[in-house]
Amino acid sequence: MRIAIIGLGLIGGSIGLGLKRCNVEGLTCQVIGISRREETIQAAIDRGAIDEGTTDLKLGVKDADLVFICTPISLIIPTLKTIVPALKQGAIVTDVASTKGLIVAQAEKLTPKGCFFVGGHPMAGKEKVKLEAAEADLFKGATWVLTPTDNTDKNALETVAEYVALLGGKVMKMEPKLHDLVVAGISHMPLAVAAALVNTIAEAKEGQAEMKKTAASGFRDTTRVASGDPILGVDMFTTNKAAVLKMIVAFKASLSNLEKVIKDGNAERIKAELEKAKSLRDSIYG
């Protein structure tokens, strides 16, 4: 099995490290890394994430059986357009983007007959997005959403699912539109809320210096995702605009409700709101 990974950051590097570990455990595959910079390719080879690499997209995927596109969201479709002429018959292409509707629709139109596209999104990551942060166990126990449509080839879907399982991921299948609403709520909105909270402090006219000096674990944990790469956030919000805006409306309504009960000084209703939040969060994380 010849596997190409386009983009050798946190996700692409972790896929490579995971696959190479599987090689040691009995899987036979050759991993080719594709990056814009020779230095990144060499670093990935040195780390044992890939067997070989190239800066040439078409050359890198020419003989690949499976291609992971691990670029920023805005580059996935342009990348697919570039590699399509070089794909061999039977090649399977998947991606790791956190939005799926637009990507899957466009990718299915672009993928030539005899080749296959399967939308994917590993629900794993860190604030650090470069190769240095990659780890073989990044996907262990993590949900990896695959987003098949009526056009998705079943054998290609199962092949991608098998490799997700080899990397330690737990496959969940979901149609693209539902996926985008789900991630708007549990992935994109946390960034929106964290950024808004941090910017509230950044724009505070009074007490800002003291807030920064006294900020402890509560502020740190609530705003952790605000330390991520802003470009990733731009891609999330622009490619999943409708779902994110829908969740922002719902969040503003929830915040307004909390504002009202606090303003009214109604301790029982404040408690009820906090208990409702605690109950749902505890049901997710225990």
From TrEMBL:
Keyword set for this entry?
Oxidoreductase
Q: Which Pfam families match?
A: PDH_C, PDH_N
Q: Which residues form the Prephenate/arogenate dehydrogenase domain?
A: 1-286
Q: Which GO terms describe its biological process?
A: tyrosine biosynthetic process
Q: What is this protein called?
A: Prephenate/arogenate dehydrogenase domain-containing protein
What Gene3D superfamilies does UniProt report for this protein, alphabetically? 6-phosphogluconate dehydrogenase C-terminal like domain, NAD(P)-binding Rossmann-like Domain
Organism, scientific name: candidate division WOR-1 bacterium RIFOXYC2_FULL_41_25
Q: Per its record, what are the GO molecular function terms?
A: NAD+ binding; prephenate dehydrogenase (NAD+) activity; prephenate dehydrogenase (NADP+) activity
Does the keyword field hold Oxidoreductase?
yes
Keyword Transmembrane found:
no
Q: Which PROSITE patterns match?
A: PDH_ADH
Q: Which family does it belong to?
A: Belongs to the prephenate/arogenate dehydrogenase family.
